[in-house]
Every structure is written in C-alpha cells, then in structure tokens.
Amino acid sequence: MENTENIVKEEQKRPELGKKAPYFKANTTHGVKSIDDFKGKWLIFFSHPADFTPVCTTEFVSFQEHYPEFQKRKTELLGLSIDSIFSHIAWTRNIKEKLNVEIQFPILEDLSMQVARSYGMIHENMGETQAVRSVFFIDPNGILRAMVYYPMSMGRNMSEFVRMIDALQESDKNQCATPANWQKGDKVIVPPAMTTQQAEDNFNNNDYEVTDWYLCKKSV
C-alpha cells in the first residue's frame, strides 16, 4: 500500500516585535520604493482592504490630515492594498475630486500579495484576497516596534498613532516606559528597581513620584 502523508498547511509567518521588519521593494504611487528608502526615519506601514471602499476612504483622508503631525516626528506613511497601481491612482484622484484632499504619501501595489503575506496582513477568515486593517511601526533602524490589527468594520484612530509614535520616541530617548493613557508631556515610568539598594534609592529620590518600589514616575 502506498504511503501517504498528511499535508498540513503552513501557518502564515507573521513578523515579530524587536526583529527586522520584512524587506520589500515594489511599485507605489510615488515610484518604486523599498524599505531601505525609509532608513533614518520612522515608518507607519499600513494595509487597507480595498480601494474605493467607504471606511478606507475615511481612513486615508484622516491619515492625510494627520500627515503633517507625523512628519514633525520624522515619521513617514506608506499604505498597501491588494490593488493595482492604476486603482491606487484613480482612487487618490477621486478622493481629491470628491473630498478635496490630496493624498501625499505613497500607496504600494501588491497584486501578488507577496508583501502582504510577509507582514501577516492576510487573515484567511477575513478573506483570502484582501488585507486586513493592520498597522506596523518601524523605527529608523528597520526594527518592528509595534503592530495593531483592526476588524474590517472599524476605522482606525490616527490620534492614537501619533500618541504611539510619541511614546516610542520618548522611551528611546529617555530609557523609560510610558503609563496607560500617556500623552506627550506627562510623567514617564522609571525602569523598576532590580536590587534592594535600587528600591531604597527610588524611595529617597526627590525627583520621583513614588507609589511603591516597583512603580515610580518622573518628569522628562
């Protein structure tokens, strides 16, 4: 009797925080772009299900409205959907015509779904030919620092993405963490004490707001 093997579909590999973001090079509405073009800057790389759809249209308008705030933070935007470059161009022209908003950041063409799959943007329960609403925060060294997924029915909150960039940059600059609901200018969390002496020093530090040895805040 001929031996048979169970064929197990390999689970789509998704990127991991703290590792290099997957490489890409592809056509965009601003010409060919690769991840290397964004070195030295932060990048918010996001996917949307499809061009010419209502929720995605409102998102792109909002991304554009917040684009100056991202640029102040040395952060670029890059969109992606599994649509052709011609669709992207027609859609952005339609947004300008109907909503008087000019999309100034590039949108990546990914008809092969190669880039989308390398970033884990395809969730089969949500559809095999659409990218879900995913957002990837990539730092100036090309390291993936945060990622967020949204359901098809929910538009994203751009103010939260500005806050996330602020928090990530603050943590890098001051070697600290940020508490829940942190906003730029708020106190940050001091790294927790790792020795009894450090714990005692925290209690005696007049610059700290001390709740207990493991939870201290400071102004930056």
Explain what the structure shows:
This protein is an alpha+beta fold. The protein has two domains: 25-174, Glutaredoxin (3-Layer(aba) Sandwich); 175-220, Antioxidant, Horf6, Chain A, domain 2. The chain has five helices and ten strands. It has helices spanning 54-72, 85-99, 114-118, 158-174, 196-203, and strands spanning 25-28, 31-34, 42-47, 75-81, 107-109, 133-138, 144-150, 188-189, 208-212, 215-218. The strands form three sheets. Strands 5-4-3-6-7 form a five-stranded mixed beta sheet, covered by helices on one side. The chain has a three-stranded antiparallel beta sheet with strand order 8-10-9, with no helix packed on it. Strands 1-2 form a two-stranded antiparallel sheet. Strand 1 and strand 2 (31-34) form a beta hairpin. Helix 1 packs parallel to helix 4. The protein is elongated. The chain starts with 24 loop residues before the first strand and ends with a strand.
In short:
With 220 residues, the protein is α+β, with helices and mostly antiparallel strands. It is 29% helix and 22% strand.
Order of helix and strand elements from N to C terminus: EEEHEHEHEEHEHEE
Model regions low in confidence, pLDDT < 50 over at least 5 residues: 1-11
**How many separate domains?**
2
Oligomer: single chain
**Name of the top-level CATH class of the largest domain:** Alpha Beta
Using DSSP, what is the number of strands? Answer: 10
> What distance lies between the first and last C-alpha atoms, to the nearest angstrom?
73 Å
CA radius of gyration is: 21 Å
Percent helix, as a range, is 25-40%
Count of runs of 4 or more consecutive helical residues: 5
Relevant CATH superfamily of the largest domain: Glutaredoxin
**CATH fold assignment of the largest domain:** Glutaredoxin
Main beta sheet, described? 5 strands, mixed
What coarse outline follows from CA principal-axis ratios? elongated
Please indicate the percent range of residues in DSSP E strands (runs of 2 or more). 15-25%
- Mean pLDDT, to the nearest integer, reads 91
- Annotated CATH architecture of the largest domain: 3-Layer(aba) Sandwich
